[in-house]
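Possible regression after last week's pipeline update?

I re-ran a chain I had predicted before the update to compare outputs. Posting the input and the new output here so someone can diff against the archived version. Not blocking, just want to make sure nothing changed silently.
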Amino acid sequence: MPTALITGITGQDGQYLAEHLHGEGYRVVGLMTGQHNPRSETVAADLPYVELVPGDLADLASLIAALEYTQPDEVYNLGAISFVALSFKQPELTANITGLGVLRLLEAIRLVGGVDNPIRFYQASSSEMFGKVRETPQNELTPLHPRSPYGSAKVFGHHTTVNYRESYGLFACSGILFNHESPRRGLEFVTRKVTNAVARIKLGLQDEVALGNLDAKRDWGFAGDYVRAMHLMLRQPEPDDYVIATGTTHAVRDFVQLAFAAAGIDDWERHVRIDPRFFRPAEVDLLVGDASKAERVLGWTPQMSFEELVTTMVTSDIEIERRKLT
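New output (post-update):
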């Protein structure tokens, strides 16, 4: 039974990846930060087969201890300060966890794995690294121009992963994932903020939702599809980096309109208020990925369409809000 250690186990990607790997016969271990972390109860309830171990991306010693205890075959680094808006308010924390956390984890793997290191490493890179894009669509060789502290930290983590691969021969891969969503997405992210608000408006619990830039365009896919690509990367004969995306782009406005339509609400504009507070200091206007390498080498393609994704999220949030009422 192979063992996988996942950081960021409480996020949507961590949960979907844990389910996928468990189904593949893995022993799944999740790194949990903080004493008596309240999220540990959620993981225990929803993912009872996941073993939790203490560790913190800000603390090298704890990462070494977690690796020595679990002796993993694979490590998936999904942990990060991942909300872009928060990174503008807490840039130093973002750099420390999202950027330096990658360095600490790779260094721990180098030290614990020793000569002929058997540990395979996956780094969650991000399309936000492209930022002010130099070409469209974006692929593995597109120059990086991040437009947020989050994007900058991800660039550091991405280049550090390449450096450890080339310097120490580690089996280290980066998945440059474009936006991916699900009913498990945090409520602070615009997609889930929209679908939850639509559900509440549908049920008469609120009347409007405040949003920022509706013209920003993104390449949205389903998180459950994208974690399959993570696993496939670590199953290859050689480590490499891959863009994971759908290859199609939609404006935030399209997402909003489709979400309201999924709930049977046609006059969506009267329920949406534009609030300047939600505009970024430096906007990323257009992201769309070229995942042809992942299709060619990994045999990976997305399964859920954009329309299915939005409808699934709205349906889930309506059910969640209904349960709260009862």
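Follow-up from reviewer: compared with the archived run. The chain has eleven helices and 13 strands. Marking as no regression found.
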